[in-house]
UniProtKB/TrEMBL annotation:
This is DNA-3-methyladenine glycosylase 2 family protein. Gene3D superfamilies: Hypothetical protein, domain 2. Keywords: DNA damage, DNA repair. Residues 1-19, 29-46 have a biased composition (Low complexity). Coiled coil: none annotated. Residues 1-75 are annotated as: Disordered. The keyword DNA damage applies. It comes from Streptomyces exfoliatus (Streptomyces hydrogenans). It comes from the Bacteria.
Length: 324
């Protein structure tokens, strides 16, 4: 487990963008020696140029988040085999309080029992994988909505444009170009032409606005059981099983919530476990049934195994609505 985090004494202050802000203490924990920050936090990154996520040459992972207390920047690294972190901004204390969960302290990888040779081998090769739990719904929901029915390249580009234009510069000594995403009210006030400029069609932008209008109710889902949390999200028109699963996997650390309705995942799972690239959602769930309680972890390990079916169909064609 990514375990105990103990703050040292003697607080200090630091001058950061926007003036002098309290700098919370650095925290160090007794986390697992094999914790892999890249594998654990990688699902939170929306493309290589995500303005809310950065890795630096010293091995640090930087995240800029919109917390209930405001924007915050978190830096995490492995130092002498243990996770160490610092945070800045109004949301710093909130981020530090939830750091263990972010690093997988509430995850139980020992509950996973491999029943296929491929998963056994991948599980052994990736001992540092933990399922993260952010405790934040909107920060995973909005980019997931942007990824509906488009290529990841398109969605990542839209996320980047909107966060840079409407978000806030990350507090503290964050790498240049990092931003915390906009707050819920700002998402509801983005003009239609700016959505268009960001290559977001009316259906996806309307879904994001509807979600932002009930943001407080959706954020409550982070403290609910995953099935109930998904039902809460799916009450919003435009949010279906694919989007709710992609969100709750991250916000709730949901080890059993499988993404259905995906263009590629059923075929990848079918190919890896049964040699069948024509697998649909129903057949995929049948194949994952032996991993009940850990089906999302099983799917992640399959993706990490690199065993994917040879491509036959053409790739999904990007659609730039800005040219219309």
């Amino acid at each position: 487990m990514a375990g105990r985090f103990t703050p040292p004494t003697n607080p200090t202050r630091t001058t950061v963008r926007g003036g002098e802000l309290p700098q919370p203490h650095a925290l160090e924990g007794d986390g697992p020696a094999d914790l892999d920050l890249g594998l654990t936090l990688g699902p939170l990154r929306r493309g290589p140029a995500d303005p809310t996520f950065r890795t630096t040459p010293d091995g640090s992972v930087w995240r800029a988040s919109r917390t209930p207390d405001g924007p915050g920047t978190l830096r995490i690294r492995i130092r002498e085999g243990r996770p160490a972190a610092e945070a800045w901004g109004p949301g710093a204390t909130w981020l530090m309080d939830r750091l263990p969960a972010l690093l997988g302290a509430e995850d139980d990888p020992a509950a996973f029992v491999p029943r296929h040779k491929l998963l056994l081998a991948t599980h052994r090769r990736r001992p540092g994988l933990r399922l993260t739990r952010t405790g934040l719904v909107l920060e995973s929901l909005i980019p997931s909505v942007l990824e509906q029915k488009v290529t990841t390249t398109e969605a990542y580009g839209s996320w980047r444009v909107l966060v840079r234009k409407y978000g806030e510069p990350a507090p503290g000594p964050a790498p240049e170009g990092m931003y915390a995403m906009p707050d819920a009210r700002t998402w509801t006030r983005i003009p239609s032409w700016e959505w268009h400029r960001a290559n977001v069609d009316g259906k996806r932008s309307a879904t994001i606005v509807r979600a932002a209008q009930v943001a407080a109710r959706l954020e409550e889902a982070a403290h609910m059981d995953p099935p109930a949390a998904r039902k809460r999200l799916e009450l919003v028109p435009g949010i279906g099983p694919w989007t709710s699963a992609e969100t709750i996997q991250r916000s709730n650390g949901a080890a059993d919530e499988v993404t259905t309705g995906d263009l590629h995942l059923p075929g990848i799972v079918g190919w890896a476990l049964a040699g069948d690239r024509t697998t649909d959602d129903e057949a995929m769930l049948d194949l994952l049934a032996p991993y009940a309680g850990q089906r999302h972890r099983a799917a992640r390990l399959i993706l990490l195994s690199g065993r994917v079916p040879p491509r036959r169909a053409p790739r999904m064609t990007p659609n730039d609505i800005r040219a219309l």
